[in-house]
Amino acid sequence: MNDIVLIGDGPLAKETSDLFNERGWTVWPLDQLDQPLSSSCAVVDTVTGPVEEKKRLLRRAAELVPIDAPIWTNTLHVTATQVASWMPHSERVGGFSPLMIQQMPLVEVCRPLQAEDEDVWDKALQLWRHVGKQVEVVGDEPGLVFPRTWAMLVNEAAFALTEGVAKAAAIDLAMKKGTRIPMGPLEWADTIGVDQVVWILSGLVRELGEDRYRPAPLLRKMVYAGYTGRAAGRGFYRYNADGKRQSSEISKVSM
Amino acid sequence: MTVEPIVRTAVVGAGTMGNGIAEVLATAGKRVVLVDVSSSALERGMQAIRDRLRRRVQKQRMTAEEMKQALNRIESSGDLSAVAEAQLVIEAVVERLDVKKSLFAQLDEIADLEAILATNTSSLSVTAIASATKHPERVIGLHFFNPAPVMPLVEVVHGPLSEREVVDQAMAFVKEIGKDPVKVTDTPGFLVNRVARSFHSEAFRLVGDHVAEKQQVDRILRAAGFPMGPFELQDLIGIDINYAASCSVYEGYFHDPRFRPHPHQRQLVESGALGKKTGRGHYRYE
């Protein structure tokens, strides 16, 4: 394999694209691909967002690759089983997390119910081994392990902020000094994307139906306002054009 | 209230938290009276301080002279009236509201009227503790983390009745003793314990629902940048301690489902697998 059809745009797509590029793969953004790829290749989908759009893009990609090309889909907010159900030859679909995929030595993947054939599944997994990732196969639930845990931390920090327990910078400082995590939950949300947190939580609410996954109203409002984090120049903090954080200021979000 | 710098302090309760806090204060140049009604607890607490300081000298993180000076700043007393001279009293007795309230009622009488009264509670309402005094405006929470000499964070907890100057003075004091203060309102679990609940409870759910195995969860979260996975961390904290924190936040928020503990958490506690201290928790220890 040496060609990747990449679905999606934004920070998650960029990070995934960089990962493959740096290891010598040719990455074809789906919207720039006008003819089918005949060589051995794989589809990597990084889309979170409305499932109808995800479905349309994945079906379009499937038309441009051979019927046995592995299709890896971002399962931050859906199950791989649901995605596989949309696809011709659903047995070649797998789910993965694109969150921090470059920094992490491993990749979290999940196996849909339809991926019953061991050989097909093993072959699909090769893609990650080719780019030097240790593979952790976890259950097929939205958010997998790290994204789900991270989203829950951010959500609780957002509830605490809403309730006025402390200010944004104080929440981040307390979590770093009190638990020794490398980044405060709110800084982390700004880095990865506040919209990603909401997608993960909404997916968990939809699939598991539990109130504990309900996104904090503040997070939803930030997405409406376009305050999705560093890439947007504004999240819990403000950023300048180089993505550097500006001195903290009082705003509705950071109060 | 007090405007002069705080130099005379008292710590009530000589257990792990109390003697740790006394050590922090003394090494930062404050005079400390460590008070405990149990003379054996008091002696154990003083011994723990001496042992830790000696190890610091051995590791050349402190000179023998500095150790001597720090120890000279600590007095011990079996009598609560020893707090009378202190400008700041930090309570670190057992986590029971009735015990703390009765202690604060006494402190309110004994301590200097200008003194700040602080509780090191990690799970009880500072407001409820303050309500036992005639001067709740001078009562705050100073939530040190365990082990106090090592952990840099102190949550400075203010209730609706705490006076602003008292809170500001406490913030400045915590900075002065070399710790990082964070101002937090009095809510169940305060800040860190409450936000960190999600880290622990989601881990139990992932494993309970067979989404992943314990070792896998720990491995993945370490790879994502957490210094420890949740299960390793729980073994270190003590599964019983962590479970008590879960229950306390859950109760504090009137059973909000976000904070619901997991049955496996309770089962481990019931089985006596409490983590490193019992040789067995999520993992086994030699």
Automatic annotation (TrEMBL), chain A:
Pfam families: 3HCDH (PF00725), 3HCDH_N (PF02737). It comes from the Bacteria. InterPro entries: 3-OHacyl-CoA_DH_NAD-bd (IPR006176), 3HC_DH_C (IPR006108), 6-PGluconate_DH-like_C_sf (IPR008927), 6PGD_dom2 (IPR013328), NAD(P)-bd_dom_sf (IPR036291). Residues 144-239 form the 3-hydroxyacyl-CoA dehydrogenase C-terminal domain. Residues 42-140 form the 3-hydroxyacyl-CoA dehydrogenase NAD binding domain. Pathway: Lipid metabolism; butanoate metabolism. Keywords: Oxidoreductase. Belongs to the 3-hydroxyacyl-CoA dehydrogenase family. This is 3-hydroxyacyl-CoA dehydrogenase family protein.
Automatic annotation (TrEMBL), chain B:
Residues 9-186 form the 3-hydroxyacyl-CoA dehydrogenase NAD binding domain. Signal peptide: none annotated. Pfam families: 3HCDH, 3HCDH_N. Keywords: Coiled coil, Oxidoreductase. The keyword Repressor does not apply. Residues 264-286 are annotated as: Disordered. The keyword Coiled coil applies. Residues 50-77 form a coiled coil. InterPro entries: 3-OHacyl-CoA_DH, 3-OHacyl-CoA_DH_NAD-bd, 3HC_DH_C, 6-PGluconate_DH-like_C_sf, NAD(P)-bd_dom_sf. Residues 189-285 form the 3-hydroxyacyl-CoA dehydrogenase C-terminal domain. Residues 277-286 have a biased composition (Basic residues). Belongs to the 3-hydroxyacyl-CoA dehydrogenase family. This is 3-hydroxyacyl-CoA dehydrogenase NAD-binding domain-containing protein.
